[in-house]
């Protein structure tokens, strides 16, 4: 702020002269002490100490945002209910049927419920940012924090951590039930590494899928559109692959099949087994989804920085 | 201080803001005026770094907003009262913004008190009225106790008490030495609140001056002269004398004369010389509203046409619309006999299309909302609230 100079265009601006707050009256701002002494050329000096905002501030702000909206709580509750509830139902059903689980461990029973619960993460990931565009809240947010990279990074951190934690708890519960009920029917015993894959691996996978949703939400800015795109992304490759009968397309078909989200997830559960056609095994799906998330998030950053809010 | 230099924003073929340069100084309320769609909000968004200008730049204290150190502590803004997530409570909304800006959390309760929302702080903002939404937006703007404040249409949806509160708040914030930039399309409101005006129309700067200068520069001040009604010939005599002396004279429907181009004492002298008695000789100063209308006449994007619904009705018995003269602006005698054109056209002025007498359809008496009578002088009528009630609905 410079000293205002009277100009011809502003002949009658009587209050232009800089002044220390003349009646920053005690009591107007509660808890405000009048600033000590004249403050140089600056017109107004806030008595609240200035602190540089950091990424951690943005993270706590995003955490406040995400927990203070009922739809978040509902969506996450539904997700837990689906993963745990359907996981239990499947375990009970297989247990009652007494059939042999050939070529897999007891943990394989948890695959289908995670597959269904994942849909909630897609929705919530998109809504985390698209609801801000829908309401115009994004402008308020970006006024409070002009560093757009920081805003999106904070959202990504909070959303990833939240989905990871919730998926981890749910899948661990289901895994415990599966092992307790189905151990005797499974062909192989579940090793420690397999435990880790269906809990931590799956949770990382779901969290990264949430990041992709967040990125797609940032790119499209429209809730319904972005959710539709995400559902298509998850389901379409498998469906399309099913209808590719032609011999000439068989390689495309194989790729679509292998890299579709459900098939990637199934690798963690060993459901497709070593004998199946897939070339991915172990922790491979995580790298695939991590690369996809990095690309999507990179696009989201670029779009957020370049486009008008 | 906000400084815009050659600010231009184009959306495809449409130019929203064109080559706008202005400065907003601390210690005063600067009004930002323009008709709907004139580029006010676009300019505000560019100031806040939300939209990237196509050309030119705008800085706050010398920095573009996005490079400001501690932006939330330096600049506070209310852009849109509805720009909140409806499912979040007022308190949580403000808390998240406070955390984002590194502002102590107790400040949230302070600003809730300042805007008077402490009792509904835990209610979800979905149920808020537009006025409550505005208060929440103002609370968000005040959160960082910033030096620069931007308000886009802050009085929309507020009740008279709320409007008075906003007006006093703006003045107080400016008196504390802050830069206060308020956009509005309500001229009457700005007349009472602002010290300085920046007027744009169709995205271009039309005026950048103090309120007082704006009025005197953009309004044709004139004198109202009335001769005794009993002596119609004296009126013609005076008209002839005034025209001869170089004045422009227009007959008003109530029998008075509107004289421009001559000072009051000269008119009196001429009347005396022509041996004409005067019943009235009064100065007329245009209100800010009139000055603004006159200035933005050519720059209005959305202009309504006269409602021709009356043409569909069967020919009315007698004189048509019920109460003649009921809608006439204050200070006007109801037109007597055949009034001719009640809204005379000043020299150099486009004829008001709505004021032309229409032979075919009876015209509602309020079709031309141009108040020629002396409207309250700016800054002299803080109690003039009733009038605004009908105007603040967007």
UniProtKB/TrEMBL annotation, chain A:
Transmembrane regions: 73-94, 106-129, 156-177, 198-220, 226-244, 285-305
Protein name (record): ABC transporter permease
Lineage of origin: Bacteria, Bacillati, Actinomycetota, Actinomycetes, Kitasatosporales
Domain of life: Bacteria
Compositionally biased tracts (Low complexity): 1-18
Species in which this protein is naturally found: Streptomyces klenkii
Keywords: Membrane, Transmembrane, Transmembrane helix
Region named Disordered: 1-32
Coiled-coil annotated residue ranges, if any: none
TrEMBL record, chain B:
SUPFAM superfamilies tied to this protein: P-loop containing nucleoside triphosphate hydrolases (SSF52540)
Sequence ranges assigned to domain ABC transporter in this UniProt record: 2-227
UniProt key word Cell membrane: no
InterPro entries in the cross-refs: AAA+_ATPase, ABC_transporter-like_ATP-bd, P-loop_NTPase
Keyword ATP-binding: yes
Region ranges (Disordered): 310-394
Taxonomy, superkingdom: Bacteria
Extent of Basic and acidic residues compositional bias: 385-394
Pfam assignment, any one: ABC_tran
Key words of the record: ATP-binding, Nucleotide-binding, Transport
Entry GO MF terms: ATP binding; ATP hydrolysis activity
Comp. bias intervals (Pro residues): 362-375
Protein family according to the UniProt entry: Belongs to the ABC transporter superfamily.
Record's protein name: ABC transporter ATP-binding protein
Native source species: Streptomyces klenkii
């Amino acid at each position: 702020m410079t000293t205002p100079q009277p100009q011809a265009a502003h002949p009658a601006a009587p209050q232009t002269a800089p002044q220390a707050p003349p009646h920053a009256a005690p009591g107007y701002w509660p808890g405000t002490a009048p600033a000590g002494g004249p403050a140089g050329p600056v017109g107004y000096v806030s008595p609240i100490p200035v602190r540089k905002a950091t990424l951690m501030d943005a993270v706590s702000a995003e955490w406040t945002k995400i927990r203070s909206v009922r739809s978040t709580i509902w969506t996450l509750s539904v997700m837990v209910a689906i993963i745990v509830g359907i996981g239990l139902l499947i375990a009970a059903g297989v247990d009652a049927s007494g059939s042999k689980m050939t070529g897999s461990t007891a943990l394989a029973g948890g695959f289908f419920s995670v597959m269904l619960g994942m849909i909630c993460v897609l929705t919530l990931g998109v809504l985390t940012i698209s609801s801000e565009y829908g309401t115009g809240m994004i402008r308020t947010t970006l006024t409070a924090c002009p560093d757009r990279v920081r805003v999106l990074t904070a959202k990504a951190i909070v959303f990833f951590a939240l989905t990871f934690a919730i998926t981890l708890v749910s899948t661990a519960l289901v895994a415990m039930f599966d092992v307790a009920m189905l151990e005797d029917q499974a062909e192989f015993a579940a090793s420690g590494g397999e435990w880790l894959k269906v809990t931590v691996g799956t949770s990382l996978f779901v969290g990264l899928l949430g990041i992709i949703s967040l990125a797609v939400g940032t790119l499209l800015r429209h809730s319904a559109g972005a959710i539709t795109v995400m559902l298509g992304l998850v389901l379409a490759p498998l469906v399309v692959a099913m209808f590719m009968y032609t011999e000439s397309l068989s390689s495309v078909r194989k790729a679509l099949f292998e890299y579709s989200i459900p098939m990637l997830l199934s690798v963690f559960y060993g459901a497709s087994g070593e004998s199946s056609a897939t070339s991915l095994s172990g922790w491979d799906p995580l790298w695939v989804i991590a690369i996809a998330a990095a690309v999507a998030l990179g696009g989201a950053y670029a779009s957020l920085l370049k486009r008008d809010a | 201080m906000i400084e815009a230099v050659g600010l231009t924003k184009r959306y495809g073929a449409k130019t929203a803001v064109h080559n706008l340069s202005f400065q907003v100084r601390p210690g005063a309320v600067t009004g930002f005026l323009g008709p709907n769609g004139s580029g006010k909000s676009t300019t505000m968004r560019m100031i806040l770094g939300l939209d990237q200008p196509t050309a030119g730049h705008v800085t706050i204290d010398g920095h573009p907003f996005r490079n400001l150190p501690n932006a939330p502590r330096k600049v506070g803004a209310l852009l849109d009262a509805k720009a909140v997530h409806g499912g979040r409570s007022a308190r949580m909304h403000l808390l998240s913004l406070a955390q984002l800006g590194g502002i102590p959390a107790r400040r949230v309760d302070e600003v809730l008190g300042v805007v008077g929302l402490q009792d509904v702080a835990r209610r979800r903002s979905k149920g808020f009225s537009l006025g409550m939404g505005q208060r929440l937006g103002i609370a968000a703007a005040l959160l960082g106790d910033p030096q620069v404040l931007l308000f886009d249409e802050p009085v929309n949806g507020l009740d008279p008490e709320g409007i008075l509160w906003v007006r006093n708040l703006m003045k107080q914030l400016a008196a504390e030495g802050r830069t206060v930039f308020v956009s509005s399309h309500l001229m009457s409101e700005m007349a009472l609140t602002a010290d300085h005006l920046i007027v744009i129309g169709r995205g271009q700067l039309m005026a950048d001056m103090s309120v007082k200068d704006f009025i005197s520069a953009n309004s044709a001040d004139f004198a109202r002269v009335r001769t005794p009604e009993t002596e119609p010939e004296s009126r013609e005599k005076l008209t002839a004398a005034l025209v001869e002396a170089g004045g422009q004279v227009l007959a008003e429907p109530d029998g008075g004369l509107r004289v421009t181009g001559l000072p009051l004492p000269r008119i009196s002298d001429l009347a005396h010389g022509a041996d004409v008695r005067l019943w009235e000789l009064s100065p007329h100063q245009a209100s800010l509203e009139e000055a603004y209308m006159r200035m933005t006449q050519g720059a209005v994007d959305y202009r309504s046409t006269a409602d021709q619904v009356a043409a569909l009705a069967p020919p009315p018995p007698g004189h048509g619309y019920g109460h003649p003269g009921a809608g006439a602006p204050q200070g006007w005698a109801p037109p007597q006999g055949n009034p001719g054109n009640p809204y005379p056209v000043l020299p150099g002025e486009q004829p008001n299309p709505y004021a032309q007498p229409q032979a075919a359809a009876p015209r509602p008496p309020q079709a031309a909302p141009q108040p020629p009578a002396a409207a309250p002088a700016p800054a002299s009528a803080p109690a003039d609230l009733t009038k605004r009630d009908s105007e603040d609905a967007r």
